[in-house]
Amino acid sequence: MAQSAEMILRIADVTKSFEGVHALTDVTFEVRAGHIKALIGPNGAGKTTLLNVINGLLPPDIGHIYFRGQELIGMSTDRIALLGLSRTFQLIRLFTVNNATVLDNVMLGAHKLLKPTICGALFFRRKTAREERVVREQAMDALAFVGLEWAAAMLPGALSFGNQRLLELARSLMSQPELLLLDEPASGLNDAEVEGFMQLLSAIRARGITILLVEHNMKLVMNVSDEIVVLDFGRWLAEGAPAAICADPKVIEAYLGACMENGGS
Amino acid sequence: MRRLGRYWWIILLLFIALYPPTLGGMSAYKSGVLIFVGIYIILAVSLDLLMGFAGQISVGHAAFFAIGAYVSGILTAKYGASPVLALIAGMALSGAVAWGVGRPVLALKEYYLAMATLALNEIIVTLIIGLQWLTGGASGLRDVPAFSVPGFSFDNHVHYYYLVWAMVLLVVGSSVAVARSPFGRTLIAIHSDETAAKTFGIDCARYKVRAYVLSACYASLAGSLFAHYMGFLAPDDFGVMTSINILVMLYLGGIGTIYGPALGAVFLKLLPEFTYQFQDYELLMNGIILIVVLVFMPRGLFGILTGIKERVFARSAR
Known about the structure:
Chain A is α/β, with parallel strands linked by helices.
């Protein structure tokens, strides 16, 4: 098993059904550290369900998830996050209550670095302020990385849809993840924004962060991913390099064709 | 104008400090009114930490007000304990109750949470009535002594006024500090979206309980101050109506702003002084105020004030 030492995430025989509907059936695959792995498939193939299982929002009926060899099933979402696993959402979920700004959102991404307490707020103010300054600088860096530093003081609701997606990404990066789960990050983006997003993903990969990407935009998937896994009706259908997946007749029948039109590989 | 905006709190402090010898004329009645205002500011601000920041509804906040008042009252009146120790004991018991019921209760959401907190309030009131040998039951607890520290007794209304307002400043100041700190930001994340908050490693249950405990301790402090001022405690003062009154203050002033609920408390407690002819209709007025605020001014009095401030600054900057 020399190979599996490099595998940051291992999904083993995961099955999940909702009131008799099989969302996932015996799904097994691995994600290699430092790679961008795309998870594709038709609507309802169970992609988001799988992401929810991985980060502990949904318990599977059976199966195991190993992150760096550690079993995640049975762990709470917040503990899984502390291990270095972060995600974005298909439907954007930013913090908007009490006039929380864009910068506040990004700084919240650093929760696990700050672990704030009431005592810290009342009695160890100097230490808290010092940590807060460091985190604020990091947050500005993260915003600059996605190109949103100009929006730091704005309310998230004032941003365009595409920029809200970038904000979610910046917030996730603040948690210094080892593995990033991205759920349809390019949906609703225009072509120019998708272009920029591809460069961002490559830059994130260059930082050594592994990405598991659920995405429908085949141009993006074909361009950035190292490997692709295809789900169909909750079952593993195919897995391999982008070119091989594009040429796989099973995949073409179930899902693609789109591959060619979008001028993939 | 801009300078006024920055130094308003110094003006406020001067007003508080100079009120008794000037406008108040050292009168027991006038300082009494402002003592009540102060006690309710503490209650409203404490609830704002829980509701406005952590986003957890409580329709039973008077439960902790009651615990503080009765622990202080019983320990000092019946057992001759030092008021300071009794006050601390009240906060400790309130905090412990909040911690104990916090996990299961705060796992509930919305209406269920509202009902559970309401039930807690009812349980506390029922206990006060039932434990007659300890609390005096429905006929009340008598002879709570004046607040004192070793070597000084706050038996004069004006002295007590200063004590209460010192506590108000302490509570408001520390609440603002908590609200603006990373801890407050974490509460806002939980309030906004618990699922998303969890994916950033936030242990929502634990943070909600912490906010609840802090909120309960402050409410208990208000209760202790109330007990020593009144000298007599009856369960009527701690019922669900009191909890709802605090809620009205929160929404009237502007929830989630700390200063807003304080403003709401001032407004709602001073209002009867000007409309005492209508005191039979106080409940009705509270209801009308709440509906008007919810429908027409969702950001409350504080929202209106900041709106005016922004407009004035925009004009003077031009």
